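task queued by scheduler; priority normal; single chain, no ligands, no partner chains; default sampling; output format set to structure tokens
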Amino acid sequence: MEKYFSNAERAQILTQALPYIRRYNGKIVVVKYGGNAMINAMLKHQVMEDIVLLSLIGVKVVLVHGGGPEISETMQKLGKQAEFVDGLRVTDQETVDIVQMVLAGKINKTLVNLLQMNGGKAMGISGMDGRLIEAKIRDERLGYVGDVVHVNIEPVTDLLEKGYIPVISTIGCDRDGNTYNINGDTAAAHIAGALGAERLIMLTDIAGILRDRNDPASLIPAITIDEARQLRADGVISGGMIPKVECCIDAIHRGVKNAIIMDGRIPHSILMEILTDEGAGTMVSGGNDND
């Protein structure tokens, strides 16, 4: 049964958000959105609502997206089998064409359209536009999977200055015209660093860093870089969480104030993180780390 709030209670909720609105007004927040967190249509709509609301109260939101499940689905429809090495998609020329089509085409423009339907002002670009993401080949075994060499951030700052929400698909290129599939978390960390973002929010399909992976109540709300390294040594941070935490650490070293790993399956989790005391997920911050 839906809970009813009186007008007075609604007003009280809004005034409680005021300090956070003041804090983030004019600041840049990068949201990495992808993977399984994008599959549910209702949740996707709510994420777009959150981003538009933040934009309307003066937060400069940059949306960086992936789309692994949709790429795999499209490959399957085209009769091409997805192959992975060390968790990374093997990307031959045909596959990188599919990646470009799905990421820069279907997914990017769908997200732009959703933001605009919710009252936002959005513009979709890929990492190839304005050579935003310059890349090089990571490993010959992986084909056209790229490592980020440099971020030319001007296309993003130009859009922010004009009041747009930039929506970025994580495809890179080199000066020889080759196209590369770039890991979305890695790209988001580089982009957030180049922007000097206040916060990087990584929406995933888990609650955050759990002390006991089988117990959602064991969520660790905040850790420093030093603590993250210790948790990895202790085996608490393991598997697919390792690269996500490493991307958070990389973002902080690049100038981002803090990074959040949180569950994109929770309705309005972005607003909970930005506009409430409790927040959501696990915050990674520099602490006393001076590396």
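post-processing summary
- The longest helix spans residues 93-117.
- The chain has nine helices and 14 strands.
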